[in-house]
Every structure is written in structure tokens, then in C-alpha cells.
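Annex B. Sample input.
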Amino acid sequence: MPGPLFEGSFVLAVVTGYLLLLFGIGYLGERKFDALRARGLDRYVYVFSAGVYCTSWTFYGCIGNAAQTGPSFLALFIGPSVFALAWWTVLRKLVRFCRTHNVTSVPDLLSVRYGGTPWLGALATLFLVIGSVPYISLQLRAVAISYDTIAGSPGGGLAAAVDPMLLVALFLAAFALFFGGRYLDFTRPQGGVLTAVATESVIKLVILLAAGAFVCYGVFDGMGDIYSRALANPEWKKLTGLSDAAGNGYARWTAYFAIAVIDVFLLPRQFHVFVVQNGDESHIKTAMWMFPLYLLLINLFIIPIAFGGLLLGLPAAAGDKFILAIPMLAGNRAMSLFVFLGGFSAATAMVVVSSVALGKMVANNLVIPGILWARKGFHGYGYLLAVTRASMLAVILLGYLYAREMSYNAALMEIGIISFVAVAQFGPAVFGGLYWKGGTAGGAVLGICAGFAAWFYTMIIPAAVKAGFLDPSILAHGPFGIALLRPTDFLGAGIGDAVGNAVFWSLFLNLIGFVAGSLLIVPRLARVRDEGRRSDAPGIGPRNGAGDSGSHYPSLEDIEAVVTRYAGREKEKEVGEVVREIREIKSRGETREAVIRQMELPVRLERILTGSIGAIAARNVLRDMLPIALADAKTLVASFREMEKDLETTRETVSHKEEEILARERLLASVVHSIDDGIVAFDAKGRITAVNEGSCRLFRRAESAMIGGDFQLLIRDTPYREKQRIVARATYRNGHWRGEVDIRRGDGTHAPGLVSTARITDKGGGAAGFVASFKDLTELKAMQNKMIQSEKLASLGQMAAGVAHEIRTPLGSIKMSTRLLGGGDADAAEVIGTIREAVSSMEVIVNELLEYTREIALHLDEYDLVKITRSAIFGLEEEAGRRGVSVAVSAPPVPCTALVDGIRVKQVLTNVVKNAVEAAPDRSGKVLVTLSERDGGVRITVEDNGPGMTAGELGKVFQPFYTNKAQGVGLGMPIVKRLVELHGGEVRIDSRAGRGTTVSVDLPRYPFAGTGGAQ
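Annex B, continued. Sample output.
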């Protein structure tokens, strides 16, 4: 290993400066957190603070694991990344449960879910502290290792006398107390802690990426160089994939994967950040893609750094130090110090959040209930807050003592896994309680105890043997020489991996205990309790059994004062609302309603107090504070009897009304879902909550693809969402909005649309969202454009007809005059011939104009279209032959008859074939005319090998007066289209630049224009 690069005093100064900077960031985060939330930046603080999942265990320990055993550690990050696909369901359910009951920790969750069993929360807290302290010690140990590696002689003075690990522990304790222990209510946003931890997550990611890039591209010639050299060594090649080697098999991989899926939520620091401090459910969607991306980036260079250290000759046993040792070997002092701060940042973030979460947990479930039970030296809110802070300090102290006494003989990875497996034991009780209604407190206790017993036996005993506290023969031969009881291969299961063995047996026994306890033990205990209740003397009175009818029920003022005593002014607003509600009911003389609400008061106050002093303490406070007086009990009994009578007399009426309402709801739902227009409902935040079938058809999206999206998913908006803001603002202010938008469809196309919105109000008259109706305007717009085009063409036709008639008269005079002058000399005859040709061309143009503008009457009869086609081509053979263009006809041997106007069809085919001949190249041109029978009609296609047309030219072919020829007025193809459509047919053109043109004319055998004869 390289020698130290810095003096100890210098490193301590840098550490102190960094900690002060961290303190400043936390202070600013605490003050400016509301501003971050207003700008929507709190979602990124939320995700990056969840990056506390990656600690110094990742920064140092994973590299050591990769250098010694291989890539099995990646399952710890792949597991949460895969599980992230289900977070919108699982994490959101967890957040909602905890928010409803003001839960701030896993023990509180268990206490609330399993009926307020006080010792369940205390037991869970004890186990969580036991399981988490080794992980805190790991962080402090990592700080000590990195300090010892980078720092040399401490010099004189304070640096020589101070233990760096103790200094860091004390400062982090101060940080946790100042920012995490300011209030008893942990449901409040802890902006200082979250901002500081999020900043440290960014710092450690940037530094780890920079260190990886330095190793790969500064020390070696890239990742390819590192991997190619590592693969050349047979021993190191085994480290590139899973194998049968100890610590790198499929059992280890599966174990890591399983515990990571559970622990990403249930580790105290993760539960505090992911669940308790979740300020908006929408942040979960951001975390679902951003958190896996963070894990990917932070693991990008882990294996290359491990191989780099091995290639430089560093021992694999020192793999935890590779990321720091490689820059030191290279003599890069700046990078070495940079890496040291990265690992330091990874450690401090975890210690801060874990100490805050565990300290609150210990206070709520162990210390505060004990104080309330003893009632000794209790002085209310300030005393409870001091107890909470002391618990945080005690947690950090325990971590420091564990790091000093027990963890020095273990690698960082081993210490972390001990905590990971311990916390995973709460998975069955937590997730089983959320999704299985049959789960009970007895099952939870039995499962957790069985799981922790297996954890202690299979993990703690081997760790104690390695630390020298127990005889090594226990691992080799089992206790009392019984091989089946070996902790690392329990019952001879043959799992082949110590961690895999521990994870399998602990979770297996945990699940068995949870299910068996829920199904067998608890129902029996419940029957015993019920029998005990039935054996009690009847009557209602105080809990102590006193029958005094004058038992005092505390006044609302007394209740408000007592709750404030325990929760301080933090809950003053919530308690005031509850008390004000009951006082208003009493003032209206509604005695029965007031008594019922007063009976609900303990439950409501318990939820309020749970966030401050925990579920166990809240229940203990309210149990004795709110006894029920005999008078109130009699009023309540009388009220219930009256309610029973009312229910009996109105049950049938209510049933009929319910059926009527349900029928109306079904009718309304049927109407909404059957209409073609799209109906979309939005909540107050602008997210889609419901759509009808018309919306799915209109937007060409599945219902699931639209639910949860926003307005911009449905319309094409500006990058700044101006349209969306205009619609929302106008709807909320005026109650409605109506206008045209550009609809976005799921297939990438757009369509013009009309949207009408209406505001939805809640019971209090506030805006609860809005509903929007979308109508497709594509057909309407097309019809409007067609009408406008028709009006333009009609006006143009009238003008062209007038102009043609005016031109035809002087043309006749010019033609007559040239005939009279025809007897002159040769030069005059040539000039006159030129004039005649020009006049003839002008006559063609005038005739086309008149043809286009006049009404056309078809004279229908049965014709053989093959003969008409050959006749049209025969008239063009001279021109085709002159230009060297071959014209071929492909037709069926039988006649293709149809009811058509033969002269008009010949005019159509002459025009189309003539265009093809003119477009074909000289000497090599080819035109193919094909006739075929199609679906009760005849199709005539004309193909040429000319230059083709661009998309822009193709769109203008049927527009009047458009032509790409040197001569011509551009009315040929519009006349063709008109004549074919009069026959009930259709003209299509397929052309690409450089690939020729194909014109298809489809004519029905019996056109809709008539059945024969003149029209």
C-alpha cells in the first residue's frame, strides 16, 4: 500500500471545513426549502436524498467485494432497480398508509397496523437498533480507514490527541440534533437534513465517477485495457461473472437481490426519506426512473477500479482501499484528497439520517412510553424533545463503540450485510400487513422473533467467532459437535454460501412464523380476550372500574391543553380544528351528534399525537385522559336506539333511492362512454383521472396510457406550456373555456380539435379539478377547405368562360384573314403558316377553358373499354413513334364492358397516355397501359419511365392552371379528374422523383350517375 500523502492536521482541517460547509448547506436548505418546493425542485431533493442508500459501503466496500469475490454485490443495486417498476403501487400504498396515520417509523407502522400492541413497537425498535448499529459503525470505520490511509503523522497539538472517528461522530451528532431534532413532529419537512443529504449524494456520485475516469483513462488506457489484462489472468477472470467461488455464487446473488428489494424501503434511513419525508406522491414517478439511473452511474466504475488495483499489485484483501490507494500510487495529491472527501461524504450522509430516524424511533417506542408510565420528572414538550435528541446522540455513540470494539476484524462488506439481513426481517410483517388483511400482531411478533433468532444464529455468531469472542470450532463442527447445527450451514441445507444460508433461513422462518401465528395463535388469544370481556360486569364507566356516575369528562379546553403539553405548538392548528368542530356542534344544540363526535375524539387525537410522540405513547396518553361519563354513555345509548329505529323505517326507502341513483349513474356512464367526443377528467393538479372510450378512439391511446398524464399529453403545446396554462387559468377563474387546439395522438399524428372545459368544485366550493370535452374537427376543416376551393373554382370558371368567349371572336377573324392572304409569296406564306399554328394553339386553350367551365352531360352506353383504350393509343402512335417511345397495352382476352360515355372516356385516356408519352425519355421511353377487372369495375393504369414528380408537384397535379410543361394551360388533369368522378370513378397518381409515374383510373361497371341513356 502507498504511504500517506498528507499530515494528519491538514486532513483534520479539511474535514472540519467540509463539515462546516455541510452545516451551512443544511442551514440554507432549512430556510429555503419552501422556495424549492414552490419551483418544483423538491422532487430532485427527494430522489437525491434517497441516494443515501449508497454509503461508504458502496464507495469502499463494493470495490473490496469486487476485488475478492466478484460482481455478486451488483444484486444489491439491481434488486431495487427492478423493484422500482412497482413503486407506483407499493411505495405509494406505503406512503398513503403512513400519511393517514402520521406514522414516522417502521415500529410505529407495525403498532398501528396490528392493533396498537405496545410491545410490538418496542420489540421492533430494539431489533432495528441492534441491526442498524453495525451499519452506522461501518460508516465511522470507513472514515477511520480512509483517514489512516491518506494521513501521515498527525504532528503536534490537537491533531495528535483527537480521534478522527470520534470527532466526526460528535459533529454528525450535533448536525442531527440541530436539523433533525428541532421538532417532535417528524411528519414535517426536514429541509435541512434532506438538502444536505441530497448534496452529499451528488458529491459522492461526481467524485466516484471522477475517480473511475482517472483510474481508467489516467492510469490505464481505458476500460478495454483493464478488462483485457484482467481476463488474461485465470484467477481474475473468475471475478468477471458468477461462479461457485465463496461469496460469488448464485446463492449470494439471490440473497443480495432479496434483501435489497426489502431494505430499499425499510432501512431506517430509507424509510425516513422515501416514506416519511415524501411531500408529494408524484415524486415517486420521478424516483422510479431517476433512482435506478443513480444506482447505475454510481456502480459504473466499481469493477474497473477493483481490477485496476489488482493490476497495480495491490492485495485483494485491501480492496476496500483501492479507490483511495490508486491515486496515491500515482502521486496525484488532489485526486487522493478528492476521493477521501467522497468517501467521507458517503459515510456522513448515512450517519446523519440513520441517527435521526433511529433516535426518533427509540424515543417514541422505548423512552417516552417509559417516562409516561413512570410519570417521574415529566415536564411536557421540552422534556420529550430533549429525550428525542438524547436518543439520537445515543444511537451515534453506540455506532462509535461498535466500530471501536467489534468491527476491526471484518471487511466493510461483511459489516453492512449483517445490518441488511437484520432489517430485512421486517419485510414479511410490513408488506404482509399492507396486503394481507389476515395478518395479526401475533403473527408479526412470531415471524420477527423467528427471523431475528435465525439472523443472530447464522450471522452474529460467525461474526463473533471472527472477532475472537467465541471458539472457532462452533463454525467447523457446530455447537456441542452437532454438524447439523453449524451456523454457516444450518441443518445441512447445502446452500454453499454463508450469507445465502442466513438470508434463506431467517426469511423462511420469518414467513412461516408470520403466517402460522396469524392463522393459529392470534385467533385463540382473541377468543380468550372476548370471553374475558363477556365475563366482565355490565355497565359503562371509567377504566379503573369506579362506578361514580359523576366521573369527570375533561372539557375541550383541558383536552387542548393536554395535547399541547405533549406536542407543543406544532399541532396547535390541527387540535384547534378538532375542538372547534365539536364546539360548533354543541352550540347548535345537536347533543347526539356532539356525543358521537366526542367519542371519536381519541382516535383523531391519537393520529395527531402519533407524529410527535409515536403510536404507543399517543395511545397511553389518550387512554386515561378521555374516560366516558355515565351521562354521556346514556345519551350515546339512547342515540343509538333512535338511530336503529330510523334505520329500520328508512332502510327500504334508502334501498329504492340507492337503486334509482345507481340506475342514473349507469345511464350517465353509458352516455358518456358511448359518445364519439372525448371526455377527459382532470384533478386539481392537472393530472388525468378518467377518460371515456371516445377519448381512446380520438387520441388513439389506451386508457392506462392516459391516466396520470397531464394536458400536454393530449394537445400540441409550446415548450413553456402556454396553451395548457391559458386553459387551466381560464377554467379555474371563469368556470369554463372553449377554443381550438392541435390534438396529439398516440401514433404521432396530429388533428385539429375543439376543446370545451368546465370546472369541478368540491363541497367547500373550491376547485377540485375540471372536465374537458374534445371534438375532432378534421372532417369539418376538410369540408370547409373544399367549399372554399369550390367557390374559388366556380368564380374562376365564370371568369374563364367569359374570357374564352371574348377571345374566340377575334380568333375567328384572324383565322379568316390569314386564309384571304394565303396567295402571297413564299415568305408571306411562311409567316401566315406560323400565325395559323399559333391561332390553332390558342383555339385548343380556349376550347379547354370552355370544356372545363361548361356543364357536362354524359351519354352512357355499354362500351368495351379495351377498344376505347386501343383507339385512344392509335391516335398517339405518330407522336410516340416520332419521339421513339414505345406504347404497349396489356388487356384481358375477353371484353371489359362498362356503362360509360365512350367519347369522354376516350378523352380521359388520350389525355393521360399523352402525358405519359411526353414525360417518357426520347428513344428509351416506355409506356405500359394495363386493363384489369377490380371489384365490380375496371382499372386502367398508365405507367411511364419518365423523371417522375416530387411530393410538392404531386400535390398540385389536379389544381387548375398548374403545369410543369413548356406549353399548355394546365387544365388536362383537372378535366380528367372531373370526367372520371362524373362516372363515379376515381383517379390516383403514384410518383416519385426519378422513378416514373403511374396513373390509375378506376371506373365502375354501373356508375351512380345513371343506368344508361343521356343525362
